[in-house]
Amino acid sequence: MSWPASTPPPPYYAVIFTSTRREADEGYAQAAQRMEELAVGRPGFLGIESAHEAGRGITVSYWTDLDAIREWKADMEHAEAQRLGRERWYERYSVRVARVERAYDFG
Amino acid sequence: MSWPASTPPPPYYAVIFTSTRREADEGYAQAAQRMEELAVGRPGFLGIESAHEAGRGITVSYWTDLDAIREWKADMEHAEAQRLGRERWYERYSVRVARVERAYDFG
Fold first, then answer.
1. Residues B4, A93: C-beta atoms closer than 8 Å
2. What is the ipTM of this complex?
3. Which of A62, A95, B15, B43 has its CA 20 to 30 A from that of A51?
């Protein structure tokens, strides 16, 4: 997958997920991986970027519209309910849904 | 600084900067650091989050409005013109300016 993500001209939507994890827990990496697996290929999915450093993580996913985000979120909640719940891995997290209005690239 | 960033209720703005760096170059970390220094404390600045992993970086900064972002951008371009230019450190990068419409936190 290209990185930075290749996205169409704005407008489109971004979901910015930032987190701090609890003490080393192997479930954390799996949770991040799972979030990505549930996004890629879904209708309305445009791309995803993720980086983790010293217990802090940022994952930004891009979507054509809010409905696609809602469906992804519902799927994640369903998947998590069948597991241990996100709270097990994350000490804190924030989710921000934002409308991308302008974008430019180099390289 | 708190992490995830403490931001007020939406709406506000996010600048999502994602990059891949050239082969190990110590200027890269300095460039990221500089971007943060030029943001923190500026009028309209709300917070910043950054993570780097395996040559890929994501920095998300939060702002009250587009004018504050424009002034930050102009300052960065001025600072870079006095240095070697961002192109020296980054192989590719994308900048996306987005309006945060919804946000929620855990923890």
1. yes
2. 0.90
3. B43
